Amino acid sequence: MTIENLLHLLRLLSPKMTMQHLQHDETRVEAMKKLLVNIHPTNFPANEDAHSIYEDLQAFYDSCCAKMNEEPTEGSKTSRMMKLRRKTTSPDTVIDLVVQFNVRQKWPWLDGYVRPLCPETLTSGKVLAPLVAYQCINSRGAIAHGKRPSLIYSWENVVPCTGQTVMEVLNNHGGFKSITGGKVDEIKMEIIQNGPVISFTFQPTSLFALENKDSIVKSRIKKHHYCLIVGWRLTEFGEVWLVQSYTGKEILQVPVGQYSIDETIIAPKDSYVNVTWQQGPYYDNDMSAFRGWNQYDVMSLTLKSKELEELAEIFGEKAFHEVIRDKVRFVIRDKKKNAHSRSCILDGIKWETDIKAWKVSFVFNDNGSSPLLTLDDSRAY
């Protein structure tokens, strides 16, 4: 257990962390909070080891901090810093302790959710790349939205992209990032933080294709067979990637490091939090002041007259009393994060004389959502 291990650990989510940053209490604590938010046991309900991993991480952090506060036993502060910089042959990371993970554990609304689906079994690989790319985009959109979205990219979006690569499709939707060289820990962290990733280099053999004939496109045997990686697990034979079949009917197990599956990983660069994933009509409002509003049953907004007029516009010629009586559905959408939205009905409007504004009450139609949070959002909860 060394300070160098702590640096490697915090770099998982704060890659720009340096030894100098580590010496600064506030920066170190902030990085640790960020890590704890991501590995909190509630994110891994199906992992029996989640609580002990979480506690072990905190104990490890406390031990490292205690060592940092010790007086140097030899030399000056410079020699102490040199000691802290000493490399270790096998740095420990918390990711090594996570023996299994599936995106459905952290985002349960992804369970059984695979969109778009192709209407028939694929025989040509030309449509496989855009199909898998849009499956990845839709899954990450559901994560950004916090529940299954009503607006998705469909098979009709896939077909015009026939022959395009995964990267070309993702470039049309905010760009892509890649992890090359079989960096397993980086791939795992990308999945834990942001959701499914795409293997660009997976090359199934004839035997693998025979064993999984309903999930492999025959024309892509021994060629790049793009696939969606949704997690991993440790088996008695070693560690395997969990791969969602393009049909959505199976989860395949592909050994880590085999069939070139983890040589090049592609993932969307965009978080899709600025993309609308729910059917309107929309009333846009800055929701940053309403902590946890995604879980409210009811809420009220204080609106100026001009803002009330903007709300009225979405109902067309219907008066407010008709909207309330008929329980007309509409969507409140965070204008700074369009993916964060919820369906609701208008419950009441009242003029508040003391503040010279309208108090508008809403009742939400759903059971709440758990949208993708940024670090700033995490501090608010």
Secondary-structure map:
Blueprint: H1 3-10, H2 19-23, H3 25-39, H4 50-68, H5 77-84, E1 100-102, H6 103-106, H7 128-145, H8 155-158, H9 166-171, E2 176-180, H10 184-194, E3 197-199, H11 206-211, E4 227-235, E5 238-244, E6 251-255, E7 264-268, E8 282-285, E9 298-303, H12 305-313, H13 320-325, E10 329-334, E11 337-352, E12 357-364, H14 375-380
Parallel strand pairs: 8-10
Antiparallel strand pairs: 1-4, 2-7, 3-4, 3-7, 4-5, 5-6, 9-12, 10-11, 11-12
Care to describe what's here?
It is a single chain. The chain is α+β, with helices and mostly antiparallel strands and 381 residues long. The protein has three domains: 3-97, no CATH class; 103-268, Cathepsin B, Chain A; 282-380. It is 33% helix and 20% strand. The protein has 14 helices and twelve strands. The protein has helices at 3-10, 19-23, 25-39, 50-68, 77-84, 103-106, 128-145, 155-158, 166-171, 184-194, 206-211, 305-313, 320-325, 375-380, and strands at 100-102, 176-180, 197-199, 227-235, 238-244, 251-255, 264-268, 282-285, 298-303, 329-334, 337-352, 357-364. Strands 1, 2, 3, 4, 5, 6 and 7 form a seven-stranded antiparallel beta sheet that branches. A hairpin with a 2-residue loop joins strand 4 and strand 5 (238-244). The two termini are 32 Å apart. Mean pLDDT is 87; it is low at 71-92.
